Automatic annotation (TrEMBL):
Single GO MF descriptor: hydrolase activity, acting on ester bonds
Single biological process term from Gene Ontology: DNA catabolic process
Listed name of the protein: Nuclease PA3
Signal peptide stretch: 1-20
Similarity field: Belongs to the nuclease type I family.
A Pfam family annotated for this UniProt entry: S1-P1_nuclease
Keywords, comma-separated and alphabetical: Disulfide bond, Endonuclease, Glycoprotein, Hydrolase, Metal-binding, Nuclease, Signal
Length: 325
């Protein structure tokens, strides 16, 4: 236990080093979502963004990271993650009421900004404003587009070593932290690129993921990823997404990591590629479905909502694990 406990650091220490998916990966998740939006949603949402984004959610999806590092936006820094009280790989566990920090976390931020965004969409639809002139609304769309990406990154839903930011590892002969490996090194390896992805348009690796979503070419069917995508149940749905991400920290992120090895060479990074592809694809499809539902004003009462990914454990199981302690 002591060995595990020493990694539990206050989340405030995260300030020094954390990012999220690298900013370009956030852009790409946004570009993927754009391809999955209805034309009507594209038309409405493009009116929410300031002119510099030319109506593109992908171009706007990385804004939240920069903003969190400004004096004005510092309050939103902690909205990028939730510190699940887990002990991966031995035990994964996430409880929104217990784990969402005072001042907010990624789950509460999704809920808060989604409800603001709903009003904004109504305002655009009724002609109250257009052209990105209401900043509260532009920020709400930019935050939602960003946080639905963050919540799919396993290390954004885990407290161990402050989301892996203090977990030293080696990657390609370079000393780095586990968080950075998942944010960028693995996506770049997966896409076989040595430069960041474009922040202006979709890159081939991500177009290919969109095709795979459309053709149902993942080991887990994409329709299952959207079982909970009703913006009226935002806390519940975001908690499920975070719980699923948290589970990966037990199932792979910490269970397979070897701090003496080079993760680029010992099979760790290659084994993680399919997880990163899955999590990125889920994020994009959920973002598009969320935004389409908001624009359509559809209250989705999922009929088959108990079907849940086979790589995850159910909320009920987690509750059980807790009770058994
Ligand atoms: C802005 O968006 C429009 C419509 O999607 C597109 O035709 C145009 O090329 C874009 N302009 C820039 C500078 O990206
Ligand atoms: C979650 O945490 C809250 C606050 O600590 C607690 O009251 C509640 O019972 C927990 N829920 C579950 C399912 O364990
Ligand atoms: C919701 O977001 C607004 C900014 O858009 C912020 O002022 C407010 O504190 C947030 N509320 C919560 C509960 O996070
Ligand atoms: C921006 O839109 C929000 C949401 O509809 C609204 O509450 C707010 O008053 C608007 N701000 C301005 C400056 O019009
Ligand atoms: C790491 O360094 C070793 C020895 O210098 C070299 O053989 C190996 O190819 C390097 N690996 C990478 C991924 O650069
Ligand atoms: C990765 O890219 C390099 C250089 O662009 C290329 O030579 C190599 O064949 C690619 N590898 C794979 C597995 O696609
Ligand atoms: C977009 O990418 C270009 C080229 O890498 C870079 O110079 C620019 O700063 C990026 N823009 C933003 C807003 O990050
Ligand atoms: C971890 O990596 C080191 C160095 O490559 C190796 O000697 C060791 O056997 C590995 N440990 C496990 C459990 O695979």
């Amino acid at each position: 236990m002591a060995a595990v406990m020493k990694y539990i650091l206050p989340a405030s220490l995260l300030l020094a080093s954390s990012a999220a998916w690298n900013t370009d990966v956030h852009n790409q998740i946004g570009f993927m979502a754009e391809e999955l939006l209805t034309p009507h949603a594209v038309a409405v949402l493009s009116q929410l963004l300031e002119p510099q984004y030319n109506g593109s959610i992908g171009r706007a999806a990385a804004w939240a990271d920069g903003y969190a590092h400004t004096d004005e936006g510092r309050f939103s820094y902690q909205w990028h993650w939730i510190d699940a009280h887990d002990y991966p790989p031995e035990r994964c566990n996430l409880n929104y009421t217990r784990d969402c920090a005072h001042g907010g976390c990624v789950v509460s931020a999704i809920a808060n900004q989604t409800s603001i965004l709903k009003g904004c969409i109504q305002d655009v639809q009724t002609g109250i404003f257009s052209g990105g002139t209401n900043l509260t609304c532009s920020y709400a769309l930019k935050w939602v587009s960003h946080f639905l990406g963050d919540i799919a990154q396993p290390l954004h839903a885990s407290q161990r070593a402050a989301g892996g930011n203090f977990f030293r590892v080696k990657f390609g002969n370079k000393s780095t932290e586990l968080h950075a490996v998942w944010d960028g090194y693995i996506p770049y390896l997966a896409a076989n690129v040595s430069e960041p992805f474009s922040n202006q348009s979709i890159a081939p690796f991500f177009s290919n993921l969109v095709s795979r979503i459309r053709k149902d070419q993942f080991y887990e069917a994409p329709y299952m990823w959207t079982a909970c995508t009703d913006p009226a149940r935002s806390v519940e749905c975001a908690t499920r997404w975070a719980t699923e991400s948290n589970q990966w920290t037990c199932d792979y992120v910490y269970s397979r990591v070897n701090q003496s090895a080079d993760l680029a060479e010992d099979g760790y990074a290659f084994g993680a590629v399919s997880i990163v592809e899955l999590q990125i694809s889920k994020a994009a499809l959920r973002l598009a479905t969320w935004l389409n539902n908001l624009v359509d004003g559809v209250a989705v009462t999922a009929g088959g909502e108990t079907s849940w990914g086979k790589s995850t454990i159910s909320h009920e199981q987690i509750v059980l694990d807790l009770t058994e302690e």
